[in-house]
Predict the 3D structure of the following.
Amino acid sequence: MSLPQTREEREKLLKELVLLDYEQSERKFAHFFRSAWPVLEPNTRLLYSWHHELIAEYLTACYLRQIKRLIINMPPRYSKSNEITVTWPCWVWTKVPEERFLITSYAGGLSTKHSTDRRTLIESRWYQSKWGCRCPELHHDPGCRSFRMATDQNVKSEFANDRRGHMTSTSMSGTATGKGGNILIVDDPHDTTRAESEIKRESDILEFDQKFTTRLDDKKNGVIIIVMQRLNEADLTGHCLKQGGWTHVKLEGEATKKTIVVFPMSKKEIVREEGDALHPEREDKARLEIIRTKELGSYGYSCQYQQSPSPREGGILKRDWWQRYNKLPEKFDQVIDSWDFTFKEGTKNDFVCGTVWGRVQAFYYLLHLFKKQMGFEESLKQMLQMRSKFPQIQKTVIEEKANGAAILEVAKKKVTGLIAYNPQGTKEERAAAVSPMIESGNVFLPVKDIATFNVDDFIEVCANFPNVAHDDEVDSITQALLYMGKSSEPRIRSI
């Protein structure tokens, strides 16, 4: 394509580009969002990613009433409010200016800001040049979808147009008396600083159930959208998912397993490998690790970034049950290591986990934890190295099923004291069986200063079990505690 040479050619090309932008923005919300961004954030570059396009398709499905109840959970500061709460309602007005929105957040100030941003976008030169009403007489053309802002109802928290469409903003505790809409949007219903308050969470949910949802004008075809980061198992997302009937979009900061994301309308597919960052241009894995370890902590990160909250105290193995030690007993009655071997040659390996334990009477001390993705040869090597590192180990306990049987067959020629362990019941039942030992205060973990592994991560995996991608630590510790506590049971076989 040759570049325009004359002024007339350049003006013609400019008009064609403006028309193309208009047509694409009106047809596809994703294009509208990208074009509107400089109006809303003139000093900030949009780091556009596939998740913006995914959300755009879900919102388009809501506009078409293909989806009427939508929950989107995603990490903070990933443009969710600008895309969903601010830009999308303005795009809908380009098609149906009669549409009525009621939009809420945990704080009135935040709702007001979003309302001001929407009005700024609608009144911008970019928006008005494409969809502003330029008719000499108002709407004389039946096919005209343009509109003008109403002058008699144009305040920070509420404004309307001359097509009888309106956008009203309120807080979760606001009543919005007499106001309603065909589309209700809830953007961050809970204050993150008060998320642990059961009273405040329940109050927010009560406002949603008994006040906010009753403002839906069209009960049959109206749309409700909730967008938030998870803060607690009993937050508004958890409450609604228990009720059922919601389309749920869960965007993890890091993929916990290989996942194929299918777009709802185009059917485009995005493959997220285990460990992939959601938006590496914004926050790569190194930055996410800092957020997890130094800013939010494991629990906060699991909620806000992974969208996987567990009860604050934990599930089967609760967080505050574990005791701590900063000095070991002078002598142990028993020292063992316990291994969970899971690997597949020729494919991406799962984790192998080994733990070393010392027992004094009925008290159990976790001395060391090793966890890594590796195959057969390296797994055997690491087990033998564990024996060298902890020469006081008397027994090595290995699950006899699956890959453990192969390790046992080779290892019995190299070391003594191998124990073939045949687990009984489900993983959950085995964790429940050792939970009294932990709850009673008989199981000790090292303090951070002397630990050879990340104790916080260990506690978090146990607390979230069984809702974790990899439960190798839990398999290893339950095996060890069951062996040391009940070593006479027939499921144990010496080799």
Remarks:
- The chain has two domains: 18-134+145-293, 319-494.
- Confidence is low (pLDDT under 50) at residues 487-494.
- The two ends are 77 Å apart (CA to CA).
